[in-house]
From TrEMBL:
Organism: Accumulibacter regalis
Region annotated Disordered, chain positions: 115-143
Protein name: Cell division coordinator CpoB
Family: Belongs to the CpoB family.
Main location: periplasm
UniProt cross-references to InterPro entries, sorted A to Z: CpoB (IPR034706), CpoB_C (IPR014162), TPR-like_helical_dom_sf (IPR011990), TPR_rpt (IPR019734), YbgF_tri (IPR032519)
Length: 264
């Protein structure tokens, strides 16, 4: 082979080798770029999945928190209603207690002249049999009855409920015709109710309504009967008692409370 041909052949081989090297060097960045794009897509996909998971967790937490807030609002509204009811009943009880003491004070003031007259006439009565005089005094002494009644009421106020119930019961049995006997039965019922004996409470309050329907405590006694019936799960009986209260004592404070309960 001539020297010129050999030189030409070597030149072509060198050119082809250079071209192949350039092609190889050019394809490497392309492959690296493709690899980088796939990795980026994978990372974006993973990030999207994690973000969605976090959003789902946050959303569930917000829903649960909203439910808890609504539950607390409902409970707060229920408790507010109970507080309002108890406040009203407490104010009514205070007013009834105040009325009682005003009435008792008036009775004692009326008795003062009689007690003075009795003291002046005492020497003339000394000639009577010693046994008979104390009996008449004990049986017809309103001041003594008032003190006995007040003692029972003090036991109730001191939260000595069993003792108060026994004292009111004893008073009612010993003084069936006393002007304070209706109140004694009324507080006897309240004492039994405080002792969680609703059946005895109903019996005592019904005595007030049956024997002294015109007594100021009769409407409250009926209301207390209805309260006890509700606690005994006698909804029908409680409704009937409340309706009877509204019909019989429409202008009483107890009737106002009864109307409110009937609306519920």
């Amino acid at each position: 082979m001539p020297a010129t041909a050999i030189a030409g052949w070597l030149g072509r081989e060198r050119v082809q080798t250079i071209v192949l090297l350039l092609l190889a060097l050019g394809s490497a960045p392309v492959q690296a770029g493709l690899f980088d794009d796939d990795e980026a897509r994978r990372q974006l996909k993973d990030l999207s999945i994690k973000t969605n998971d976090r959003l789902d967790t946050v959303s569930k937490g917000q829903i649960e928190l909203a439910n808890q807030i609504q539950t607390l609002r409902d409970e707060n509204a229920r408790l507010r209603g109970q507080v309002e009811t108890l406040t009203y009943e407490l104010e009514s009880a205070r007013k009834r207690q105040q009325d009682f003491y005003v009435d008792l004070d008036g009775r004692l003031r009326k008795l003062e002249p009689q007690m003075a007259t009795s003291a002046e006439a005492k020497p003339a009565e000394e000639s009577k049999p010693p046994v008979e005089a104390p009996r008449k005094a004990a049986a017809s002494d309103p001041a003594a009855e008032a003190r006995e009644y007040e003692a029972a009421l003090n036991l109730f106020r001191a939260n000595k409920l069993k003792e108060a119930a026994a004292a009111f019961d004893a008073f009612a049995r010993a003084h069936p015709d006393s002007a304070l006997t209706p109140s004694a039965y009324y507080w006897l019922g309240n004492a039994h109710y405080a002792l969680r004996d609703c059946k005895k409470a109903i019996d005592a309050h019904r005595v007030v309504v049956a024997k002294w329907p015109a007594n100021p405590k009769a409407p409250d006694a009926l209301l207390n009967v209805a309260t006890c019936q509700q606690e005994l799960a006698d909804a029908k009986g409680a409704k009937g008692t409340l309706e009877a209260l509204v019909a019989k004592y429409p202008d009483s404070t107890a009737a106002t409370t009864a109307r409110q309960r009937l609306k519920k």
